[in-house]
Amino acid sequence: MRFDIISVLPGLLESPFAHSILQRAQKKGIAEIVVHNLRDYAAGKQKSVDDYPYGGGSGMVMAIPPFAACIEKLKREREYDEVIFMSPDGETLNQNIANQLSIKKNIMILCGHYKGIDQRIREIYVTREISIGDYVLSGGELPAAVLVDAVVRLIPGVLSDETSALSDSFQDDMLDAPVYTRPADWNGHKVPDILLSGNTPAIEKWRFEQALERTKQRRPDLLA
After folding, report:
1. Is 134 annotated as contributing to ligand binding?
2. 59 assigned to a ligand binding site
3. pTM above 0.85?
4. With bands split at pLDDT 50, 70 and 90, how would you rate the model's confidence at 165?
5. Residue 135 assigned as binding residue
């Protein structure tokens, strides 16, 4: 699976993609993550990628030419299943969206900045707009890193235990059950006896009940 990410600040993405699961996925050849510097596609000595908004108002708008030049170059090299714009007014990222994207082959992600990008880029090239929450960040790089992480960990072969992702919160529209590890007794705080019983059916029943109760208490909207 390949991700092509277009950013005016590619340095923001160096660390997220160079550690942990994302690093492992790239070393295994399961995922390929390429970050493209938008300024490389800007004209003029200043390599400017933004301009004042028509109609006045505060802030700057990311211009069409650099984005269009980069997108067109990439699309000549391969076909993309999705061209995603990270935007606070997109659909909110959830586990179902991550599952959908994890079976794609090529995904392009556009990272905005300033007041946003020229609407025509969104209308002409973007196939999907995704938000990571109802708040505004300085740019789309961190949301892009969140999206890539959520998707890549679902690809078979990335996690050491491939069944682990299937039991994550939200996979069954519920939160996960409480988890414990050694020691079984820490300063009088003990692991539930059922988890030490070795009775797998009883343990699975307990986990389901705990997950259901936690979801009822914390995210009842998921059960609706």
Report:
1. yes
2. no
3. yes
4. low
5. yes
